[in-house]
């Protein structure tokens, strides 16, 4: 049997607008309004899950979804001590660390996790799904979508940064453990 996983990226927040590492902020007014406008745009699901962040839970709620679970494997990439700061700020203060982090998927932000570790945990979650023939809607951080795309395509972890994931977009995976197909999508709702 084939399972379908619809990965919906979280709506806009102040951190995303500033290009800052997530600091747990809620959706901004625009993000919440766009998510509410997209309510009903997703097909019915057999299960709904969400990343454990505030913005993912609020996005799910605005979409009219009630997550059954918030699996830890679907958390965003832990930026450690860089949390809440912009990439520009961190690069000015710690240029070598940022260069290493962007170039080497095994390198972690100070106090955070590596891209390779994030990719591995998302892959583990996907491959642990039992093929039910059903559909799972997962409201997740953009990093989770990137990690899932790396896993589905069989690409190396260094490909993680090659996937752009705009807010409130949907990417579909279909398949089962060991073999996933990736269907690229677009924004939910209008505008």
Shape: globular
Structural class: alpha/beta
Helix and strand succession? EHHEHHHHEHEE
Largest sheet: number of strands, sense, barrel closure: 5 strands, mixed
Which percent range describes the beta-strand content? 15-25%
Round the mean pLDDT to the nearest integer and report it.
93
Protein name: Histidine phosphatase family protein
Helices and strands in order:
Elements: E1 3-9, H1 14-18, H2 29-37, E2 47-50, H3 54-62, H4 87-93, H5 95-103, H6 115-128, E3 135-140, H7 142-153, E4 170-176, E5 179-183
Parallel strand pairs: 1-3, 2-3
Antiparallel strand pairs: 1-4, 4-5
Pfam families: His_Phos_1 (PF00300)
InterPro entries: His_Pase_superF_clade-1, His_PPase_superfam
Organism: Streptomyces ramulosus
List keywords for this structure.
191 residues, alpha/beta, globular, Histidine phosphatase family protein, His_PPase_superfam, His_Pase_superF_clade-1
Walk me through the structure:
The termini are far apart. The model has no long low-confidence stretch (mean pLDDT 93). A hairpin with a 2-residue loop joins strand 4 and strand 5. The chain has 191 residues and is α/β, with parallel strands linked by helices. It is built from 7 helices and 5 strands. Strands 2-3-1-4-5 form a 5-stranded mixed β-sheet. Helix 2 packs parallel to helix 3, helix 4 packs across helix 5 and helix 6 packs across helix 7. InterPro entries: His_Pase_superF_clade-1, His_PPase_superfam. This is Histidine phosphatase family protein. It holds the Pfam family His_Phos_1.
